[in-house]
Each structure stands twice: as structure tokens, then as C-alpha cells.
Amino acid sequence: MNISEKTINNYTIISLKGILNASSAPKLKTYIAGMPDEQSLVIDLENVEFLDSSGLGALVGIARKKRTSRAVMKLARMNERVKKVFEITQAYTLFDIYDDVSAAAEV
Amino acid sequence: MNPIITLTLQANLRYVRIASIMACNVAEIFADFTCNSTDIAEFCHAYELSVSEAFTNSVRYAKPSQPEKQVTIRFSSDNSSLAVSIIDTNSQFNPVTQAPDISNYPEGGYGLFLIHRLMDTVSYTREDGTNILTMTKQATITHDT
User: Fold this and answer.
1) Are A21 and B56 a contacting pair at CB < 8 A?
2) DSSP state of A35
3) Do A90 and B52 touch (CB under 8 A)?
4) CATH number of the domain located at residue range(s) B2-138 in this protein
């Protein structure tokens, strides 16, 4: 999985590309752990080809930490395969989810 | 059920993608030959995701005392359904089906719940120190008119 970042307004946009599973989730957690806890994030999922519950768990864990730090974490551009995992587990209830990265970083 | 293919992998998370890609490919070939018309992509995704979950669990709960830990993935089918079994020699486990309490922001505990939601039937047996988790789904058969 490749991770890249850019900044829009006060948000760091984290773009993920590839597979987010038990093998790659630690890389995402380590990457986010290297950022300030209070930094608000938009995670761009457009190029995530596959996500399983380990990938979901990593995102939920990051969201919990951001919530504790009173920072904001949003998700953007979820494809249908990724969306299915969020729907079955009802994890979508934990996140603000946007179709567009710029819109997510505007609010 | 007739056997299709069996794959044994080292119990290491670096190989989880091999297991899930294989599951997706076997499901695609099965659906292609079995169905006149079905949502093949959704059928394949169910196997890709379920095997990813089950293989990950097998690796995570592997006994540290076993130096050569392995996980076996076995596919079999009949005319309309495809079964995949995940086989390991870990300790016996309870294949719970309840959803984790999402309001607590849990990082884990979703795997078996997802499998039960994606598959038609999920069975667990313990035989001679071996765990066998078998997941089966019926391909949707639509006859031409």
C-alpha cells in the first residue's frame, strides 16, 4: 500500500493506494502515529482496491485517537467494495464520509 | 462436494493476499461456469473478503510453539455452491457471530461477523486437533428465457 499526503485548508489529506489488510494496516497506523495527534485528517480511499476488517480496524483506531485529541477525521471517495465493509459493520456511523476530497476539507 | 484445489501457506500475514486473491479467482471461475447470469463481482468479493478474514484469524491465533505453522485453504463445489475451508492446528475457538459494539470504536472483532454476513452457511468443526472453518455460498442461477 502506498501512502501520500498533501494539505488543503487545515486538513492533511492522506491518500491510500492498494490493499488495506492485516499485512498493510500497520504501515498506515505507523504513518499516522508520526503526525501530531491534534492534526485533522481526510483519508482519501479512492484508490483502495481492497479493504478487510483489519484495514477497517486501523481506520476506526485512528478515528478513536483523533476523537480523544478533539481532532477531526473524515473519509472521502469510498468505492463500492470498501463501502460494503463499512455498511455491514455499520462503521459508517463513526465517520463523516464525503464523495469529494475538497468538500471534506472545506467544512 | 467435489474437491477443486487445496493450497497450504505459511501462517504469516504477508501471505494473506495470496489466499484472498486465490479465493476471488476460484470464485470467479466457478461463477462463470455455473451461472448464466449473476453478480459475479459481488460473489467473488464475498470469497476474497471472507478468506482474508479467516486466514488473518488463523495467523493471529497460531500457537507460538509451532515453528512451522501453516494454514490450508481447501475449495470444493457442487453444481451450484462453492465451499472454502480454512484449516489450521490452532487452539479450539468459538466462532462467534455477534457484531462488535461499534459505538466503542473497536479495532477488532469484525472478522467472523463479516464472514457470517457474506456467506450463506458457515460451519466450524474440530477434528483431531484441527480447526476447520467452512464457508459456503450459492451462486445465483438465472436461466435464459
Assistant:
1) yes
2) S
3) no
4) 3.30.565.10
Domain residue extents for chain A? 2-106
Q: How far apart are CA A54 and CA A60, in angstroms?
A: 10
Q: Class of A2-106 per CATH?
A: alpha beta
Closest Cβ opposite residue B16 in set A23, A81, A88: A23
ipTM over 0.90: yes
Instruction: Kindly state the greatest CA–CA separation across chain B.
Output: 58
Kindly determine whether residue A52 and residue B49, on different chains, have CB atoms separated by under 8 Å.
Answer: yes
Smallest CA–CA distance from B56 into chain A, residue: A22
Close Cβ partners of B37 (under 8 Å, ≥ 6 residues apart):
B140, B142
pTM of the model: 0.94
Interface residues of A toward B, Cβ cutoff 8 Å, are: 19, 21-23, 50, 52-54, 56-58, 60-61, 63-64, 67, 81, 84-85, 88-91, 93-94
Nearest C-alpha neighbor of A77 from the set A8, A13, A33: A13
Smallest CA–CA separation between B144 and chain A, in Å? 28
Along the 107 residues of chain A, how does pLDDT read in single tens digits? 999 999 999 999 999 999 999 999 999 999 999 999 999 999 999 999 999 999 999 999 999 999 999 999 999 999 999 999 999 999 999 999 999 999 999 97
Q: Which long-range contacts (CB under 8 A, 24 or more apart) does B96-99 make?
A: B97/B122, B99/A89, B99/A90
- Spatial contact of A89 and B142, defined as CB atoms under 8 Å apart: no
pLDDT digits (tens, 9 = 90+) for B13-61: 999 999 999 999 999 999 987 765 558 899 999 999 999 999 999 999 9
